[in-house]
Specification:
The structure holds 2 protein chains of 2 kinds. By secondary structure, chain A is mainly β. Chain A has 2 helices and 9 strands; from the N terminus they run αββββββαβββ. The longest helix of chain A has 22 residues. Chain A is elongated. Chain A starts with a helix and ends with a strand. Chain B is mainly β. Chain B contains 1 helix and 11 strands. In chain B, a hairpin with a 2-residue loop joins strand 8 and strand 9. The chains are: A mainly beta, B mainly beta. At the A-B interface, strand 5 of A face strand 8 of B. Strand 5 of chain A pairs parallel with strand 8 of chain B, so a sheet runs across the interface.
Chain lengths: 267, 202
Amino acid sequence: MRKRIFIWSCLLLLAGTTAKAQETAPQSQWHHNLYVELGPKFTSHLSPNLEPFRPTGGWGAYINVDSRMRTWQASARYEIVSPNYHWALRTGLQYGFNYKRIGYKQAEEVFHTMDYVDTEWYYFQVDNENQLEYLLVKGIEQHSHYLGIPLELRYYFNSGIETFRMYLAAEADLDFLVGNRNKVNFLNKDGMAPYAKQVTEQYANPDPMNASAYFGAGFQVGDRSGIGVGFNWLVHLFEINGSTGMLPTKPKFAGSKLQIELLIPLK
Amino acid sequence: MKKLIIIAAALLAMTACSKSDFKQTQYIDDPDYPGLPIYSEMGYNTYGAYINEQVFTVSSHGSNRPFYLVADRECLTMTLYGWREGTNLNMVFTLPIDSTYHLEDYHDLLALDGKRFDIDTTATSCNVKFEGYYPPTITSIYSGYISFEKIQQVIVDKEDAEIIVSGKFQFRAFGPDGNRLDVVGGRFDLGVDQTNFINFRR
């Protein structure tokens, strides 16, 4: 008798659970979105190797170098969102273009140097065993192209407004170098191209792989079931591996990235 | 007279405006020798020494080289325009150069690479004198040297630019009253080309 009661109880419980599950089926569905994202990455870098530059500042012998790094990233990402619209996991394919330049900086008066000779180029010393050899260089550039895989975890807050959502994000990027070009702008262009390697070989090329982690926040505007746009700002936490090349970056808190995203819900 | 005209022409060339800051003095302080430029072999157009503990150093930091070299049949004269205690003081080295050196052109200075000349007026014809505003007078030098540590050619964009003459000097001398004059810590790093090398050997 007890055995029969137990079997009937189990059957009723199963039937009830199934019925409840059928009722809540639309709410338990995971949501799928596609994103197109674009934005700059701001990276602070350490001073480049200035040894090859001849000082041009006169008294105080000042090396007036302007070094800059810019990165732009674009990605297509797939997102799967939990049924309660809080947790989301995102991944996809990311393209990155990294531009670095060591160039001339407008001279400032240094100490008593009143007769500073204003030039827009440098004496750049290259290896030569028997002589002191310089090339007149206006700037050195490094153009690096990356393809990467981002993996991002988001937590969406319920703001109470259907068309506005804020979120926290943690992201890890694995970027692979797919192309690199070093370029030297010589003052005298004629016939100097073959000597570009003598200049660029004094600077490192980017490593073939770069892994970095970010944490940040953002918001989205638009109905969840329709097209939306969003912005996010992610702080660079640390870099696991990979030199970015001729301008060394800080391994931790090197900068941040700002991205605008276009959300396309998948049915 | 001819010498004076040639030197005046050379000085005029030295003061001519140059678009190249390669001729500019690149002065970097030597922390170990306060008041003096570092010893360098880069053609920074600097020099300096302590004269009885007073700083003698390069007088100009503009786009003009404040020194010149003159070669004749017997000597190489190196004149360094400088300052000591806020007043003009020039240091003039006269070195015996025999015919083996063939200093016809500033490139021939390369032959002096690594050479050292003892400065002892009692034994050699090497001499140093001062010129300027109340310059110290040297009657005899009893020990010292000037050494051309490194002389090298500078190439800019694959073309010849200048010769760098760098080295060190020091000497002890007596003045007219028998007072001692110690010149120590001397160093020079000079860029030389046709504008500040004069040849009277021809």
